[in-house]
# Entry
Amino acid sequence: MKKLEIETVENRTFDEIKIGESVSLKKVLTKSDIEFFAIVTGNANPVHLNEDYAEKYLETHKIIGHGAWIISLISNLLGNRIPGAGTVYVSQESHFHHRVEVGDTLTVSITVIEKKQEGHLVVFDAKAINQKNVLVLTGKSVVRAPTDKRIGPRVKLPEISIRSNVDYFEGLIAKCEALEPVVFSVCHPCDQTSLLGAMEACKAGLITPILVGPRHQIENVAKENGIDLTGIEIIHTENAHQSATKAVELCLTGKAEVLMKGSLHTDEMMHAVVQRKTGLRTSRKISHVYAMSVPTYPRLLLITDAAVNIYPTLEDKVDIIKNAIDFAHVLGIETPKVAILSAIETVNPKIQSTIDAAALCKMADRGQISGGFWMVPWLLIMQSALRQLGLNIYRPKLRDKRMFWWLLIWRQVI
# Structure
């Protein structure tokens, strides 16, 4: 059996340290680094955190990293390399020469320039340069070096993730509160989740629901869960199939503007939606867009199409992307960022999705698909795409199923 190797660290004592010794490290500044540092220090200066503020007031139009974050990299070298374990910071003198922005690669180095026997003090010259060899910081660090040798296992740091305090759905709801309620055709709301979701939206003044389904089932669910249906129109049907047909008919005839899925299977409702004569077809391919508010991502995340189109063609994918971009515009996102997902990161003729991804990117370059900012000029696997969008993968706990309403908007944009 192979032995588990444990990484060990070894410090440098005062007597071992030599004048002229130097160590360095490289670090790429990410947006998460800035956010973590802001949380730890409480420094919420908008020049570090607010992209809209930076766009308006900063010369470079980009958020910048905290100066103290650069100093923390010097502390990294002092505490981990020279002298290492047992080091005590005495003083730090720093001069900042250039800003550091997200994506910059800093090379931070410290060099021993003096040793003082009294107090076992070691003086370091500190320097940081960016990937363009531009000087970012200079300074001097003074530490009290350990006098005893210490060798031991490297401490494993805990993993942390950022959870946003912003509820983006609250912002959307606030915008809708100023508008007139929209008539919803609620298809087969025969369970607690779908009925309660519709009725809470009604109570908030966002929608006027028309409930389509077996009357006795709907009323029983309402009674069991204490839901008041006073004044709510109910159109009786015998089963889910009839519910789907009738709910779609309400949208087709203009009596309702939005179709909301209840407790029936998606394929049952979609069967009625896609009928050529009685369905809700437009010139575009119908697609599904899932809007998520993810605690570790500072914006709404839209995923398409994970529910409707099983094997889309290139032409279908164009419509799917256009639908998602138009949906983002409806939500108030002026320039949504688009990332294409596939099984691998390079074009492979044997994998059709990679060929399609390359074609879609080229179509966007030529203006055939517009309205979005294509962050990635190439296709990406899921994990890479999320990272390009700045998203740390996080698995949130399901808190309240009422948050996840499945809506199919009957308009030209969807």
Notes: The chain has three domains: 12-147, 166-281, 287-414. The mean pLDDT is 85.
